[in-house]
């Protein structure tokens, strides 16, 4: 123990320890800043859809997907020519009552009597794959649809740029959707989100998610 204390008291060792600690602090600050900027910039370019099922029962989960499909069908009708995120948000806001009407009528047609809550706001999302596009965890503007008690598993997609597609097993996002996203992101940001197989990318997004979970990001509006 004495040898260890003596070793630590050595001026050169002290200096190495101090410099290592300062380097760690500097690296951490840079990492947080990087994660903050990437998460915020991507969130500023994306408008998402969030559908929450009443429960995790098979019937409620199946209902969630039927509601989703009908909402996406309507979304494609009214927002197919949107060129910006804000334009898509404005259109959805103007037609919020119609989205609610579609959700409620779908639920009723399927033999359920659940209520529906629809809100447009800024919500927290985990890291999520959309085919070959990967978005980091963070706070995103979204249309949130809560079915019944909203205690079931979630379903997410991106309404703008239009990355929502029913057959998610295809793993391929339409090229026109990628082009819209590329126009709204920096070259580095687009390279990050469009290469979901990159190990470095996975690490960076896990870093963002870690900071988000521990309250170190302030991307929420």
Give the arrangement of secondary structure elements.
Blueprint: H1 2-9, H2 11-43, E1 47-52, H3 58-79, H4 85-94, H5 96-109, E2 116-125, E3 128-130, E4 133-135, E5 138-147, E6 154-160, H6 175-184, H7 187-193, H8 199-213
Parallel strand pairs: 1-5
Antiparallel strand pairs: 1-6, 2-5, 3-4
How many DSSP E strands?
6
Total count of domains: 1
Gyration radius (Cα, Å) is 22 Å
| Major sheet | 4 strands, mixed
Q: Kindly report the spatial arrangement of strands forming the biggest sheet.
A: 2-5-1-6
Task: Decide which structural class fits the backbone.
Answer: alpha+beta
Proportion of residues in helical segments: 40-55%
Number of helices: 8
Give the averaged pLDDT, no decimals: 77
Shape: elongated
- CA distance, first residue to last residue: 52 Å
In short:
This protein has 221 residues and is of the alpha+beta class. The chain has eight helices and six strands.
Describe this structure in words.
- It is built from eight helices and six strands.
- The protein is α+β, with helices and mostly antiparallel strands.
- The chain has one domain (40-213).
- α3 (58-79) packs antiparallel against α5.
- The longest helix is centred in the first third of the chain and has 33 residues, at 11-43.
- It is elongated, with a radius of gyration of 22 Å.
- Mean pLDDT is 77; it is low at 166-171.
């Amino acid at each position: 123990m004495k040898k260890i204390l003596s070793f630590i008291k050595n001026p050169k060792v002290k200096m190495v320890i101090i410099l290592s600690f300062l380097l760690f602090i500097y690296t951490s600050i840079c990492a947080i800043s990087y994660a903050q900027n990437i998460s915020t910039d991507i969130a500023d370019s994306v408008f998402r859809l969030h559908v929450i099922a009443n429960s995790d029962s098979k019937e409620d989960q199946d209902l969630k997907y039927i509601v989703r499909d009908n909402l996406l069908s309507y979304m494609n009708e009214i927002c197919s020519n949107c060129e910006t995120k804000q334009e898509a948000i404005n259109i959805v806001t103007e037609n919020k009552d119609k989205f609610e009407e579609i959700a409620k009528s779908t639920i009723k047609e399927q033999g359920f009597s659940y209520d529906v809550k629809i809100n447009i706001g800024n919500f927290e999302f985990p890291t999520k794959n959309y085919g070959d596009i990967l978005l980091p965890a963070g706070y995103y503007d979204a249309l949130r649809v809560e079915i019944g008690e909203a205690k079931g598993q979630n379903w997410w997609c991106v309404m703008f740029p239009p990355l929502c597609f029913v057959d998610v097993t295809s793993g391929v996002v339409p090229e026109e959707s990628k082009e819209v996203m590329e126009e709204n992101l920096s070259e580095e940001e687009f390279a990050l989100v469009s290469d979901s197989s990159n190990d470095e990318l996975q690490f960076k997004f896990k870093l963002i998610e870690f900071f988000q979970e521990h309250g170190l990001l302030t991307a929420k509006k």
